[in-house]
Every structure is written in C-alpha cells, then in structure tokens.
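Risk mitigation, structural track. In case the binding assays with zinc ion fail to produce interpretable data, a predicted complex structure has been prepared as a fallback.
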Amino acid sequence: MFTLLLACARLGDLLQGGFITWPGLVVADRFDFPVGNGEARGYYDAQPFGKNRHLGADWNGKGGGNTDYGLPVASSADGVVVEALDRGGGWGNVVRVVHRLPGGELVETLYAHLATVAVNEGMLAPRGALLGTIGDAGGQYYAHLHFEVRDRPGAPLGGGYGTPDGHVDPTAFIGAHRGASPPNVRRAAHR
Ligand SMILES: [Zn+2]
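Fallback model:
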C-alpha cells in the first residue's frame, strides 16, 4: 500500500495545476514500441489487447521460449517513472511511466514481469531509455513483456485481464502516436 501511495504522491507532484510539473520533463510527442529498437522488430504480440480479456500486449521474441530473457525494455515515450518495484503475484517487477501528451492529457505506460529494473521512482525516462529487461516474473511464464497503456495514471494495478478501466489498446495507441519528430532517442542498447 505504501508503494501505491508513493506513486500517487508522485502523481500529485506531477499534476500541479492540471499539468505535469517535473524538472526536465518534456511533452511526449512520439511513442515507440518498448521492444525491438522502438519498432518491435524481432518480436510478436502473443496475446493482443482484448484477446482472453487481456488488458495489455504480451511482447515475445520471435525466437520463442526464453530467447528474449534479459533483452532491453525501453521507455515508450518521454516521461517520468512513477513506480518501479516488485509487485509479486503474477506481476513481478513493474515499472510505470507517466507521459504528458501535447494536448496536456496524461497517459501511463506499464511494463511488467521484468527480470531487472534499471530505474527508480521520480527519474526521467526519455523515449528509448532503458527501463529494465524482459523477464518471467520469477519463472512463472516464458519470458515476455506485459505492456499496458492507460489513460488514467495512478489507477490500481488490477489483474492484467478483465474489463478495460482506463486501459487502451497499446498497439493502436502507439500506432496513432508515432509522431514525426526527429529521432532524438537514447536507445536501450540491444545485447
Ligand atoms: Zn500479459
């Protein structure tokens, strides 16, 4: 519960006057995929949004099995980390990043089952920056990235399946927000 409260406190800091106010944070004018050098190159979505009432995308390496274990997970867009911790259960390590869209709206991206976490709460997470690595939530699954996009930052974690409650189709969202800005990206290095 402390961690959730901490996340909310961070959001409170961010939301002064209805706008994100965080030193150095820029508007997220472009979103990329969190794997495969921003393009999901070499990956496939094994369980798209809505299938089996799934509330995210499950990015798996095309090599199958655990061939993607330990590969980099990158921030989808410029934002600030509001959660970075082990949530246990079926989640394992979770990172959440909040982004401010050009119109001022906030969205949250969520990255789960991570093997390692490379960021802390409150850190800026530029688009393409390393957040952690693909994992299996302590051996519960074949390694993959569970990735969500939510339009209500700070909502409860939930269970990853069910009726969308602020969850949007992450692949459709990214497709609609690739933007046209030049590639000012610090890419997470591919191993
Ligand atoms: Zn999933």
